[in-house]
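Q: Is it fine to ask for two folds in a single conversation?
A: Yes, each is treated on its own. Send the first.
Q: Here.
A: Result:
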Amino acid sequence: MKVVIPVGALHVGGGCKVLVETAHALQKYGHDVEMVIPQHAEVAYPVKCKLTKVPDLKKEYIPYGDVILPNFYTTFKPAFEAWPRQCIRFSLGFEPLWVPDRDFALWTYHQNVPVISISNWLNNKIYQATGRSGLVVNLGVDPNIFSPAHPKVKPYRNGRKVIMYIARDPNTAYRLKGYEDFIKAMRLLKRHYKGKFIVHMVCTEVDLKIKGIPHRNFKPQSSEQMARLYQQADLFVSTSWFEGFSIPPLEAMACGTPVVTTNSGGILNFCQHLQNAYIARPRDHASIAKGMYRVLKNPTIAKSFVQNGLQTASRLTNEAFEENIVRKIESIAYQRNPELKPSTPAPTHLPSIIEKLKSRKRGKSDG
C-alpha cells in the first residue's frame, strides 16, 4: 500500500517526531511511504522513507497514494483537494483551539474524511465540534531509551533538587505551553519551599532567563540526551493549556521521575491525580506551585508517583503505538478499497518467528 504524508516542516517538536515515527512504522510493516515537504522547510529528524521536496504544498504537488495522511489543517486542504477519497486525517491536536483562522481549521474537520486522533480527550473535542467520532491511538515511549537510571543520577553534590521543564519561546505562537504560568509558579515556590533547587530548562529556540531563580539551559540533540535530563531530575513539570496527548510527562514517568502537570486534556489518557502524577489546573500558577511543593516536600508521594508512573509507561510503548497506528490506517484503507488488502497477511513479528524456527532446528541437530 502506498502512503503519502504531506508535512509543512519537520522541526524539533513532539508532533513532527510523531509523524516521522508513523512513517517509519508504516514502512516497517511493509508499506511504501513517501513524505512530501516544501523544499525550504526544516528537516530536523532523520527520515528513513522517501522524502520528496516540492515547491509548495499545493494540490498539484501531492502525489497519488492509496492513503494520504495529512495531520494539520494547512496540509489537509491540498491533500483533500488532490485526493479526497484517499484522505485519512491524523489529528495530533485540535487546531481551532489555538490557530488564528479558527473557521478554516474547523472546516477541515467537517469534511467526510476518517479521523484518527491520539487521545480520548481529542476525539471528544472533535465530536463536540462536528458530531463525528474517529479512532484513537495513544502515543508511546521507547523503553530502550526512556528508562530509569540506577542509581538515580545526581548532577549536584550539594543536595539541590532538580526541576526539569520543557519550554517554547514565549515570544512566538507557543503561549499555550504556559511558560509564563511556570515562571509565576516558580517564584511562588521559592517563597514557600526552603530547600535548595535548580531548574533544568529545555528550550530548542532560545536561552530563557528566570530572574531570581537558579537555572541552566539545555538544548538536547537526541532522545538519549533528553532521557539523561529526565533521569537527572527530581521532578518534571508541564504547564500546557491543552495538548492532544503530551508525550514529555510519559517520557518522564518512563525514566522514573515524578510528574506535576496541568490538566491539558490528552494527559488524562495516562495521568491519574495523586496516583502517578499531580494534576494542577491549567493557567493557575498557584495550583502548579502547590503540586511542586507537595512532591518536593513529601518523599512518600514522590516514590509513589515513580512506581505508578513506571507501570503506566510500561503499557504505553512505542512498539504498541507503531502496531496500533498501522493497523488503524490499514483497517480504514482496506474497508474503503478491499483490493488493497494482501491475500496472505505478513506475520507481525517476522524476525522473532524466524528465530524460533532456527532455535528448533538447532535443538533437533543437538539431539
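Q: Second one now.
A: Result:
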Amino acid sequence: PAGERAPLFSMEQVIRQKAAQDYLALDDSARANLERTHWRLADPLFLTEANEVWLEHMSRVAYAELRFSEPERGLRGWETDRGVTYIRYGPPEIVANIPINTTGLRTELPSSDVGWSGMAPRSQQGRNTSVGSTIVWKYDDNVVFMYHQEAGYSRAEFSGDYTFIADEVRYAQPSKYDNIPSLPALFTVPMQIARFRGVTPQLVAVEIHSQLPLEDLLQGAEMGRSQLETGLFLVNSDGDKVLRQSSTEIYELGDAASANPLRSWRLMLPASGTLVAAVEVRDAITWHAAASRDTFTAVPFPEDSLSVSDILLAEALRPLAPEPKLRADYDIVPNPSHAYATNQPVTIYYELYGLDLDSEGFADFDISITVRVRALHREGMIDQLVGTLADAWGFSIAGDDRVELQYHRQMDIQERDRVIEHLTLDIHSAPPGEYEITIKIWDRLAEELASGQRSFVVVE
C-alpha cells in the first residue's frame, strides 16, 4: 500500500533539514517526481545495471525497521534515533555499550580502540545494578553519536546534546554511501567540458575530455590483462539518460601502467537546457571503478551578438593548416585534470562569435587576458608573485593579485562565423596554487563586451 511504501522511498532522512521541510511540503506527485530524480542521479555508476546507492539505501531502511522498531511506542525503525542515523550513514565502524549502575557511576571508555567492540566491563566497586547504558557509535571519519538506553527497553535516544550534534553532522554531510561491496574502490576521472558553436548556430558542439586513471584501477590486479569498460553518459535534469556511449577494451597490465590514456568525445547537441555529463570506467576483473560528473548548459551561442566559447585548457596545440579557420584545423592535446607542473606551459584555445564587420568584412576588437591568483594568500607573497609572473609572461600588473595582457586586433573574417584564438603561457615562475584565467573581448564596431573564465592549478 502507498502508505507503507512511502517511507521506503522517502528522502526525508538523507537530505538537509531545510530541504527536508520543503520536500515534505510538496504534494504527492511532486514528491514522487523528486524522489525519482534524486535516486536516479545518486546512482554512482551508470555503467552497471543496478543503482548501487538505491539498493544500499533500501537495505538500510529494511535493517532499521527490523532492528530498531519500537512497537510499544508505535515507532517504525526509520523513525527512531538509531534508525535515522543508520539510514544516513550505514553501519558504524565501532559500537560500544557502557552500562550505568545504581551509584551513578559509568564505566569509562577504554583508552584503546581495541576495547570498543562488545560490552564494556561493569564497575567492580560493590554490587551495582544496571539501570541502563550508553551506546556509542563511531564512524571512520571520527563522527561519534551517543544514545541512552534504559534497562529493559529496546529504545535508545540521543544522549544530552547529541540531538544537536546529529543536526550539525546532518548539515555538513546529509548522507553517506561508501560501504557498497560491489564498489570496492571508486576513483575520480579527471574531466574537462568545453562548449563551442556547432556546425550551425542552432547546435552546440560539446567537447568532453577525460583521462583514465589506470594506475589506480589496475592496482592489485593479478592477471596478465584487464578488461575495461568505458562509458560517456548525458543525463537530463529529470535523471533520464539522453545519451550513452560505451566501449570495452583489453589492456595488458605491463603496458597500461605506463600511461593514463586520454578519452575525448565531441557531440553536436540541440538546445537542451542543463545536462549532467558522466565519464565512467570499470575493470571487470577487480571491480575497481572511476567516475566523474559535471553539469553544463547546452544553449546555442547567439547569432546576432558577441559571445565567447568556453576556454579549453590544453597541454599542446598544433595547427594542421597554413591558415586555421576551424576547430578541426588544430590538433589539440587537452588537459582534463586542469593541472600543470611548475615547468609546463599552459595552452588555451577559445572562439569568438558574433563580431560586427565593417564594409570590407573586417572585425575590430580588443582582447584582455587576465590571470588571477586564487589560492595563495600569504602576506607579502602575492605582490612578489604577481611581479614575477608579469615579468615571466610579458603581462602588465593589473592589481594586487593579478596580471593582465591586452592587445588590439583587426581581422579579415569575411563569411566566417567565428574567430579562433589561442595562447601559450610559460609558467616556469609560478608556484603551486590555484589560478583563474579571464578573457574579455570588446567589439569596437558593435560596442559590445563578452567574457569567459577557466581555472587551473599548478602542482609540483
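Q: Anything structural to flag on that second result?
A: Two points. Confidence is low (pLDDT under 50) at residues 109-126. The two ends are 59 Å apart (CA to CA).
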